[in-house]
Predict the structure.
Amino acid sequence: MDIDPVRSSLISVVVPLFKEGANVHPLLSGITTALAKTGYPFELILVDDGSPDDTWKVISEEAQVLPSVRGFRLSRNFGKELALCAGLERARGNIVIVMDGDGQHPPALLPDMVRLWQTTGADIVEAFKISRGRESLSGKLGALLFYVILNKLAGFNLKGASDFKLMNRQAVDAWLQMKERNVFFRGMTAWLGFTRVQIPFEVPGRVGGETGWSFLRRFELALTGISAFSSLPLQFVTVAGLFFLMFSVVFGIYTLALQLAGKSISGFATVILLLLIIGSLLMISLGIIGEYLARIYEEVKHRPRYVIASSTESVTSQPSP
């Protein structure tokens, strides 16, 4: 009897976790129930991003009960993006699904994503948000501003995009070829191209606990996304410098003409104002340049992106390639 190579594909589900001990069991229950409907064999790769709570203990216990669970614990909190790298590098499936561990990526959507991949043959099936769910106004405005800036600077429209994606092995292998330390999964996946289809979903509330995404972490991720995909901010420094050079020439000629006519400007208000404007521009320019230098510094050190402290497969202290 011929074996259908598509139906025999292994699905890998990669889930980064940080302080989600209370959510692990209901999450696994929802995922296994949903994937059972697809008829595909699957593995669940849970990456504990150095959680200070009992997340790793719960993962270890679940791995003893469910043979499909493969757990990995990072030596410290490296951040969600790098935890995703750890999971993707260890995924063995021909199909890899990435989703969050807080319940805001509904497992019930998994069969539809697999079905859409089957019927369309697309390399990537990405779930996009119809609404952002229960989120503060400042959070929504901040996300909107980030997506507008990234779209204008890099040309990627990520409005409504999420990390909830299905990728075939070709797309995953291509993603893994990108070895930068400053990882922005969503943007890197968009940069890859490939054929893709979208499936809408509404973001539900968290299953439990509190989000680990503080304003500072969101801001840091936004800086990473912008600096990793566009050099236009550096060009802003050049353009601003040329503008102030022309302004200085014109203002210098104007001042010299007034001096020769005996109508020189008195007082320090104008000088102070110019110093404040130019000083502010210089500080902003140095900040932009410094941000890019920091990214270069992180890359040239060639440190591993993360370190595995332990796993349910008894792999210890194994750094990423």
